[in-house]
């Protein structure tokens, strides 16, 4: 059963989109994307911990928040301007959304979440290179701390 209070506190897609637009005004758009992906990675780390501890409602809420962030990123892609590359990026975001949702409750959910975190770290680091932000791999103990709070993620 899903707690109604927890549902109300989860940000809507509109709220996530507004947060992205607000961040994009404050920082460069590529930095805002890195910040958003940092938050998704942090949520995935917390989702793994919650799943391991059998706190499934918490895992659900974190997954829901992550999918809303990715949905917001996909929504802001200008396919008309970006062409095939933009379409591919949009499909990548949507594929990750579906993979997160399909992982919930599966016996191998933790492995699936870890795999998603690996792929999203690569995507995040590609955006970070464009934004001139250090990649997660370049940070000390990056593999142990993948998805932890970073200066860019604390505002996400």
Observed structural traits:
156 residues, mainly alpha, Four Helix Bundle (Hemerythrin (Met), subunit A), 7 helices, globular, disordered N terminus, disordered C terminus
Q: Could you explain the architecture of this structure?
A:
It contains seven helices and no strands. By secondary structure, the chain is mostly helical. The protein has one domain (13-132): Flagellar protein FliS (Four Helix Bundle (Hemerythrin (Met), subunit A), Up-down Bundle), CATH 1.20.120.340. Helix 2 crosses helix 3 (29-52), helix 2 (13-26) crosses helix 4 and helix 3 (29-52) runs antiparallel to helix 6 (109-131). The radius of gyration is 15 Å and the shape is globular. The relative contact order is 0.16.
Question: How large is the radius of gyration?
Answer: 15 Å
Question: What is the helix tally?
Answer: 7
Query: What is the arithmetic mean of pLDDT?
Result: 84
Total domain units: 1
Any low-confidence stretches, pLDDT <50, length ≥5? Answer: 1-8, 141-156
Distance between the termini: 28 Å
Organism: Blastochloris sulfoviridis
Main location: cytoplasm
InterPro entries: FliS, FliS_sf
Subcellular location: Cytoplasm, Cytosol
């Amino acid at each position: 059963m899903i707690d109604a209070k927890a549902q109300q506190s989860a940000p809507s897609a509109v709220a996530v989109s507004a947060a992205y637009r607000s961040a994009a005004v404050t920082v460069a758009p590529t930095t805002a994307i890195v910040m958003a992906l940092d938050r998704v990675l942090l949520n995935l780390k917390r989702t793994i911990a919650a799943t391991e501890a059998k706190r499934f409602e918490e895992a659900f809420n974190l997954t829901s928040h992550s999918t809303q962030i990715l949905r917001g990123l996909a929504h802001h892609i200008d396919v008309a301007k970006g062409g095939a590359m933009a379409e591919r990026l949009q499909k990548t975001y949507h594929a990750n959304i579906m993979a997160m949702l399909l992982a919930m409750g599966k016996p191998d959910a933790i492995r699936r979440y870890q795999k998603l975190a690996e792929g999203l770290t690569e995507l995040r680091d590609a955006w970070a290179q464009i934004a001139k932000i250090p990649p997660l791999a370049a940070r000390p103990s990056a593999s142990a701390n993948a998805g932890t709070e970073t200066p860019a993620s604390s505002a996400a």
